[in-house]
Amino acid sequence: MLEKSNNNEVPPIPDKRYFTIGEVSDLCGVKPHVLRYWEQEFSVLNPVKRRGNRRYYQPNEVLLIRQIKELLYDQGFTISGAKAHLNKDQSKETATLSNELIKEMIEELEDILTSL
Q1: Which CATH architecture has domain 19-115?
Q2: Are 47 and 64 in contact (CB under 8 A)?
Q3: What angle (nearest 5°) sits at the alpha carbon of residue 37, between those of residues 88 and 46?
């Protein structure tokens, strides 16, 4: 009887700027047709397309694909649930960045005030 493989480890992402769909498929353990489908479903996943409609993914998109795979396959999210989860994460990141910028601006304004 065949046993389920426990090979959940993914290879490290090489230090490159762009990856082809085949390379991303190997790096993430997802078939190319699944990646093309996810591009249609997840608006945040938008690889650069060049001549002949060839897709080139950046390292941050490879990480995003791994996150999507984790949500769908390991955590059992639906596509819409995964979209909502990713949007929630992006909202938190945006809020955190905004708060940091506001704090920096306040510090700069206080420095200006003290110099006057």
Answers
A1: Orthogonal Bundle (1.10)
A2: no
A3: 60
pTM of the model: 0.67
- β-bridge partners, 48: 56
The DSSP-derived string for the chain is -PPPP-----PPPPS-S-EEHHHHHHHHT--HHHHHHHHHH-TT---EEEGGGEEEE-HHHHHHHHHHHIIIIIS---HHHHHHHHHHHHHHHHHHHHHHHHHHHHHHHHHHHHH-
CB 86 within 8 A of CB 42: yes
21-49 pLDDT, tens per residue? 999 999 999 999 999 999 999 988 989 99
- How many Å apart are CA 45 and CA 41, to the nearest integer? 9
